[in-house]
Amino acid sequence: MTKVGAYAIIRVFGTVFGDGGEGLGSVAAPWVVPAALVTIAVGTAGLLGSRRLLDLAAFNTITSMGVLLVAIGQFSVDGLTAALYYLVHSTIVGAALFLIVDLIAARRSVKLDALVPGNPISQAAILGALFFLVAIASWGSRRSPALSAS
């Protein structure tokens, strides 16, 4: 749902505050990037302090929303291009991360998604590899050429 909010910002700003409404658009525009940076800081602090896989996935979503808002906050064609690319990519990666966390928690009956040692689970190698790949995709999308162009 966070990505729906970002898409709404893109649509509303372009439609309502576009070329004909610079006066109205300039009221909120200076606050987008600072708010995005605060969102990234809060999400990163949450990632570092997480003690459960579900918390990691949730704070990753918060951090990715901040990165998306930085691109949107440029209010340029390059920023919008990067934002639309990252919007689709981060939505797919976030959904995959939540699904993998649920698969892991379902196999750990007592510990669930807690980041503590537990009994071996079935298909641990596959789930670990998938979690690793999705985590890299999550981090790698923030370092993409499309985002550095904005």
Top keywords for this entry?
77% helix; mainly alpha; 150 residues; elongated; disordered C terminus
Give a written overview of the molecule.
- This protein is an all-alpha fold and 150 residues long.
- The chain has one domain.
- It is built from 6 helices and no strands.
- The protein has helices spanning 2-16, 22-49, 53-72, 77-107, 124-141, 145-148.
- Helix 1 (2-16) packs parallel to helix 3, helix 1 (2-16) packs antiparallel against helix 4 and helix 4 packs antiparallel against helix 5.
- Mean pLDDT is 86; it is low at 144-150.
Overall pLDDT level: 86
Which structural category fits the helices and strands? mainly alpha
β-strand percent reads under 5%
Tell me the number of strands. 0
Fraction of residues in helix: over 70%
Q: Major sheet, described briefly?
A: none
Please tell me what the overall shape is: elongated
- The topology string of helices and strands comes to HHHHHH
N- and C-termini, Cα separation = 24 Å
The Cα radius of gyration reads 18 Å
Count of discrete alpha- or pi-helical segments spanning 4 or more residues? 6
The domain count comes to 1
Overview in brief:
The protein is built from 6 helices and no strands.
